[in-house]
Amino acid sequence: MSLLENKNILIMGVSNKWSIAWGIAKACSREGANLIFTYEGERTERSVKQLLSSEMPDAKLYKCNVTDDMDILRLFDDIKNDIGTLHGVVHSLAFAKKEELEGNFSETSRDGYLLAQNISSYSLVAVSRYAKNLMTEGGGIITLTYIGGERAVPNYNVMGVAKAALESAVRYLAAELGKNNIRVNSISAGPIKTISARGVSNFTNMLKQYEGKVPLGRTVTQEEVGNTAAFLLSDLSQAITGENIHVDAGYHILGL
Ligand code: NAD
């Protein structure tokens, strides 16, 4: 039997075929899940529609900009009416202004700091608040983080602080939602070339250095992150919650 047969899984954060969320969607689809997608706004609507029409024409698609409470409320109302129960949520989204992803961290603006926290961290809390009401049979919520939430990584700056808050939110949500049999975990992925990653100054160089240093001697793929996500959303991981799993070819164990 496939790992996610008869499970309804919401995937937030696909904007194109390079998105990590798309790697997760492909793994979940292979494992038999029914997928529901969101897009942020006009900027991503066309590309997501194109991707789905050629590869997953049966998937449902809704708009949700996570800075807008009404969008979040409407999304879960629509899912309740159109689908009913949810078994999994994938939160694979983040944003910081490009100028905050380079140079000195102490120069971070108040606006830039709050924006990064709002989209990249608080949104998991807001989404979980509504998702839990539809996860009446239990299930899994997962989010994506990076080693920059645990260590000071050059140029990652404000996003590192947002990821630290996100990882903490995972623990608080896991502690609360365990009684509903909802597990909450994060995946700390190694660097992967995506539109968001390119916003971090010097990203390509970082990727090259990574390959030379990590135990497995290579970077990780969207597909590998997708497989770990499918595991975390499935019953195979039913005693794992509040965890941060590194899918980073071993980078996090190094004393760099
Ligand atoms: P991506 O650009 O493909 O995905 C980011 C997504 O965030 C996009 O789909 C975008 O539409 C969405 N988004 C931004 N603002 C939003 C808003 N206000 N409302 C709703 N959606 C919004 O890049 P990605 O690398 O696939 O990023 C996905 C996640 O993975 C992010 O949390 C990122 O920090 C994390 N991550 C990425 C890497 C990497 O190297 N690429 C490594 C570790 C963790």
Care to describe what's here?
The protein has 256 residues and is α/β, with parallel strands linked by helices. It has a single domain, classed as NAD(P)-binding Rossmann-like Domain (Rossmann fold), CATH 3.40.50. Helix content is 44%, strand content 15%. The chain is built from 8 helices and 7 strands, in the order βαβαβαβαβαβαααβ. It has helices at 20-30, 42-55, 69-82, 110-134, 157-177, 195-198, 203-213, 222-233, and strands spanning 8-12, 34-39, 60-63, 88-91, 139-145, 182-189, 244-247. It has a 7-stranded parallel β-sheet with strand order 3-2-1-4-5-6-7, sandwiched between helices. β4 (88-91), α4 and β5 (139-145) form a beta-alpha-beta unit. α1 (20-30) packs across α8, α3 runs parallel beside α4 and α4 (110-134) runs parallel beside α5 (157-177). The longest helix has 25 residues, at 110-134. The protein is globular and about 45 Å long. It starts with 7 loop residues before the first strand and ends in a 9-residue tail after the last strand. The site of nicotinamide-adenine-dinucleotide has 26 residues, from α1, β5 and α6.
Order of helices and strands: EHEHEHEHEHEHHHE
Q: What CATH architecture would you give?
A: 3-Layer(aba) Sandwich
Rg estimate, integer Å: 17 Å
The end-to-end span amounts to 42 Å
Main sheet summary: 7 strands, parallel
Helix tally? 8
Strand content: 5-15%
CATH topology: Rossmann fold
Q: Trace the largest sheet across and list its strands.
A: 3-2-1-4-5-6-7
Portion of residues within helices? 40-55%
| Helix/strand structural class | alpha/beta
- Unreliable stretches, pLDDT < 50, 5 or more residues? none
Q: What would the average pLDDT be, to the nearest integer?
A: 96
Catalogue the ligands: nicotinamide-adenine-dinucleotide
CATH class: Alpha Beta
CATH superfamily, please?
A: NAD(P)-binding Rossmann-like Domain
How many structural units, i.e. domains?
Answer: 1
